[in-house]
Amino acid sequence: MVMSSLKLQDLIEEIRGAKTQAQEREVIQKECAHIRASFRDGDPLHRHRQLAKLLYVHMLGYPAHFGQMECLKLIASPRFIDKRVGYLGAMLLLDERQDAHLLITNSIKNDLSQGIQAVQGLALCTLSTMGSAEMCRDLATEVEKLLLERSPYLRKKAVLTAVHMIRKVPELSDTFLPVCAKLLHERHHGVLLGTITLITELCERSPAALKHFRKVVPQLVQILRTLVSTTGYSTEHSISGVSDPFLQVQILRLLRILGRNHEESSESMNDLLAQVATNTDTSRNAGSAVLFETVLTIVDIRSAAGLRVLAVNILGRFLLNSDKNIRYVALTSLLRLVQSDHSAVQRHRPTVVECLREPDASLSRRALELSLALVNSSNVRAMTQELQGFLETCPLDLRADCASGILLAAERFAPTKRWHIDTILRVLTMAGTHVRDDAVANLTQLIGGAQELHAYSVRRLYSALAQDISQQPLVQVAAWCIGEYGDLLLEGSCEETEPLQVEEEEVLALLERVLQSHVSLPATRGYALTALMKLSTRLRGDNNRIRQVVSIYGSCLDVELQQRAVEYNTLFRKYDHMRAAILEKMPLVERGGPQADEEVKESQEGTRLLEPAPVPTEPQASKLLDLLDLLDGPSEDSQQPPPVDSSPEGTLIHLLDLPCAPLTPAPIPNLKVFEREGLQLNLSFVRPPGTPTLLVITVTATNASEGDVTHFICQAAVPKSFQLQLQAPSGDTVPAQGGLPVTQVLRILNPNKAPLRLKLRLTYNHYGQSVQEVFEVNNLPVETWQ
Fold first, then answer.
1. Concatenated DSSP letters for 19-64?
2. Rounded Cα–Cα distance for residues 136 and 123 (Å)
3. Which of 201, 316, 320, 688 has the smallest C-beta neighbourhood within 10 Å, fewest atoms?
4. What pLDDT, in 10s, does the model give residues 58-87?
């Protein structure tokens, strides 16, 4: 006997009237018990009411899986009221993960053939919502027949179901190709919108379909021209004065796909795109959406040069819009265009710079990225000044990107060395803790190569250090410069700066202050200690104070600093006659390209012990990884590089054995290891001559697709007989359409010169989907390990 239970309306009222969550659970558990009892008793007349209550319980987040089979029974029922609730339950309770969903295939097939519109509509909605690949293959013929039905209601639902089928089973494209051409003559907006969506899906998944539908470009152009002129279609689809913006946007997207890399199709739509761009009202969001889609189509096809300038000018007008969303999409689109249409985007540089002052963080970040991309040799002074002003007031999460961008722009477009040095010093003064890891090395190399600016640089750095010792990269560069050119600081002969009288005691006191400061990093103390040691050969006074400071750090808890102090003490005690030669000024370094700089750094690794190597302020940016567990090879003992003699005598020999110039390594061919949906990964190799067991791999990620690749992470693993050092990447976003690539450096030590096996794991987001790829690279060139 069926137990008495609540009606759906009464159940809703009782659940909403529950004072606590416990009361709500009690009501639901009691009613679920009644529903189960009713299902067991098999009451056919009230089964749909019980399932309706169960669906409401499911929508509240409570388990309702025991109603799945009841959905199948209701779908098979001849009564429409049962079918309606049954199909609704199937859409909510069933999906591809449950095998039970395959049991309704035959019921859907029968209902599609019934001839009753309401029942056919329910079956089509269910199939388009939860139809699996197997169901789509079985029911494709029935859906194709319904595409030619007289009723627009059925044709619209059948088209949407066909879209779902193509997404699930792309090989069904040939089934729906013929009927799409007929549906393009539709006058019903809903059917036409669904048809355009279906053709778009077909073109994206089938090259044959793309070639086939390029023949209908004139017809699509005529449809859109009719929409723009507001004749031939009903005004009931007008939104804010724009005739059916949804249909216009979908047609523009399809035209963009058909005109990409096709001259004839692009030529046939140029006039129409110009008409849409000039006649669309942008006072409302609907018009702005159509205009933005027009801009994307113009820049993606082979359009005329004047049309591309018009598109950039439209985006420039978007930057003046009061809507933040419109300004954001304008900045994002201009960032994509800055490589291909640089001069046109440059005209809107003042407006872009104004967007830097936006209080919205997402807008200011996009404006910063675009501003950095607009910097060139002709505007580097003005743009750098604007960016430095932004750096003073920007949020902390933007400071690192802004500082790094200014440094890169200055390195590429610096008009003079002095301007370059002044720019870096100002950035280090304002945001020293946020700069890139290589900023210290780049500035020391720049100053070392500018012999005429040594006196100017050491005075500027000394003044900056005297005012603030909290910016660690600035302190490191200043300590290095004072150690190298301290004699020029004391001479006071620099004409480019204000007169500055500095005493030896003041210089020594400032370096001791750096050593004693609690904010100084161990690397910074290493720079300061080395500077004191070098000043012992450049100052004319007594070195007792320097010797006392050095001896104090001989018992320092930091091992690196302690070893450095012990070595310096040994120099004073046993090798005082060699101290001046060992601590002489560093030779001038010729600045080359990035590849040459990398070779110089690698060839001098392990030999430069006096000067503290520039280390990142964030230790996690570069870590030694032992990731054998990602590989399936046999476990081996980890082998370390050859030991270096740590005795004072051996250290001095290494100090004097500095290479004069890097040797040119033999070229190693590049290797493409990954390609998917436009994302490509290439490996380039360098083996520094000074360290033959070291291999430097540069991973370069490029993106030729339409969508940006975001949250890009590349991880690597090698067997335990190797040592791997994975450096920080240049970014985590690979811009679309061949934008600036993302690079990452891998340093692999191979002491046994064994064949190299490399395993890579890529994680990224593309077109809104999260992707993870793991693959092994076994075809590395022989030159990488022999």
1. SSHHHHHHHHHHHHHHHHHHHHHT-SSSHHHHHHHHHHHHHTT---
2. 13
3. 320
4. 999 999 888 888 898 999 989 999 999 999
